[in-house]
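pinging the channel bc i need a second pair of eyes. not urgent but kinda urgent?? the chain im working w is below, pasted from the shared doc
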Amino acid sequence: MWRKFFSLFVIKNKFEAFVVIYALGLGAVERGVHYMEQYPGFGGWLLFSVCPVAVFMAGARILDSVERRDLE
């Protein structure tokens, strides 16, 4: 039973990976907007720009792991 439950949290194909990356991107931009409100000026823009960059790096890792799973 636990195996079926935990299989719900495994990304199996590229479509699921893109949905997860999209959700991460929405959250990152929302967090960036909060940073811009808290830190007006250059500091806010700098923190805002770092949030989506982290999603790009995580998205690349997610897609790479899905492609490796397809090759096996």
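so The chain has a mean pLDDT of 90. and The two ends are 26 Å apart (CA to CA). — does that match what u expected or am i reading it wrong
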